[in-house]
Amino acid sequence: MTPDLRQLRYFVAVAEESSFTRAATRLMITQQSLSQQIKTLERILGARLFDRDSRGTSLTDTGALFLPEARAVLDRADEAVAVVQGAVRGEIGELRLAFLATTANHLLPPVVRIAREHLPRLRLTTEETTIGPLVEGLFDGRYDLAFTRPPQVPGLAARTVATEQVCVVLPQGHPLADRTELTLPALANERWVMTPRSSWEPWHQKFDESFRAAGFTPHVVARDASVQGLLGLVAAGVGITRLGWSAHNLRRTGVVFIPLAGESMPTEMVWRRGNTSPALRRIVDVVTDLAATTDLTATG
Questions:
Q1: Measuring CA to CA, which residue among 139, 53, 42, 49 is closest to residue 98?
Q2: Residues contacting residue 23 through CB under 8 Å, at least 6 positions apart
Q3: pLDDT (0 to 100) of residue 251
């Protein structure tokens, strides 16, 4: 038979007070109940823990040896309770974060920084990826939370954390490179470089709609799956492309970003509906508060 935590707490109280009367008062129980519990503990252990005489109550040699062990068990139990309570509050646990490659440069640093500041006991793993694996990872549990352009698929919950200007990216020296703003119809005769349609069909359907609304079908002369690749193609004079303003941090030379009138691009914090992780709820709230006071497209 093993002593329970209550009996250990009673034993430590008597040892620290050197008095059953004072220990009972501290524990808010009757002295008779306390004496019975200590007798039960001594019977379980097969050893006398206290000497009682006219001068008071003192530990036996065995009791003195048992005291630090009992305290250690109680401390460890308190630690275990604290871990569970912290997990329930979302302060302890592990979260796997995914960042769309186009958002990682400016979003990963502030998100991780604020999480470490407000949730220091939360373990975070981060991964930069493309939209297909990102969405798949949210559904199969590989990722708990992702930062991405809107995926345009059902089954995911989302909060917008940033909205940025959409720009047309031109090579330096382009005849329109000195404009302060452009419209999409003004670019109908340009050559375009874009991501492959296979990279994420829902996005390309949105692109198609915007080009149709502008009255033309773009002449796509090259494709590249990465933003860096698209910027390189533009800098080489192969064609023009359309990106969020934050992408200007990825290439400082050879290209010019011109705002497209009336066009903006949201970045969302996305997670699978039905994910009940307390840690997920906490970090969503923390990042939401950060986004309300900080331009996350300008950080990094």
A1: 139
A2: 10, 13, 14, 16, 17, 34
A3: 83
Between helix 31-45 and helix 5-17 the angle, nearest 10°, is: 110
Q: Can you list the residues of the chain whose pLDDT is less than 50?
A: none
Q: Which residue has the tokens 């910027």?
A: 231
Q: For residue 279, what are the β-bridge partners?
A: none
- Residue 83 pLDDT: 78
DSSP state of 180: S
Question: What integer pLDDT is reported at residue 85 of this predicted model?
Answer: 83
Q: At what angle do helices 20-27 and 31-45 cross, to 10 degrees?
A: 110
Q: What is the DSSP string of 264-298?
A: EEEEEEEEETT---HHHHHHHHHHHHHHHHS-TTS
Structural contact between residues 103 and 150, judged by C-beta atoms closer than 8 angstroms: no
State the alpha helices, DSSP H only, in the chain. 5-17, 20-27, 31-45, 61-88, 101-118, 131-140, 201-214, 227-235, 278-293
Question: Hey, is 49 helix, strand or coil?
Answer: coil
- Tokens 């998100």 locate to 111
Cα–Cα nearest to 271, from 260, 263, 261, 279: 279
Q: What is the C-alpha separation between 109 and 297, in angstroms, rounded? A: 11
Mean pLDDT of the chain: 93
Burial annotation 150-189 (CB, 10 A radius, 16+ → b, else e):
bbeeeebeeeebbebbbbbbbbeebeeeeeeebebeebee
Instruction: Give the pTM.
Output: 0.77
